[in-house]
Amino acid sequence: MEQVELPPTAQPVIRTIAMPADTNPAGDIFGGWLMSQMDLAAGNLAALNARGRAATIAVDGMRFHRPVKVGDEVSLYAELTQQGRTSMHIHVTAWRRGREQETCEKVTCATFVFVALDEAARPRPIHP
Question: Rounded mean pLDDT of 113-121?
Fold first, then answer.
């Protein structure tokens, strides 16, 4: 029996609708669009945690499990998993729900690495 994974109980950082302009030549939602939405979600948490500007420096372990279709509601959940002196690791999961469905399914996940930046765009310490 296949184990069913449930979405996080926390509120999503971003909830959006996949639109026709976001499709690839096959008619599915372009992976780059989904990755950019995930980066926005991670960046929102990074800026809040750093109390200022932060930049993406890496994305680890992205794998697409299921396609997203036009009209799907996409929910993005972000969680701070590790923090260093200037850097943060933020794990983001993306879930889709078909327009006329009640259930959702996990689409992808990845860990985004951010660095807090000062006014001159140099790494700066993250204050507790």
Answer: 97
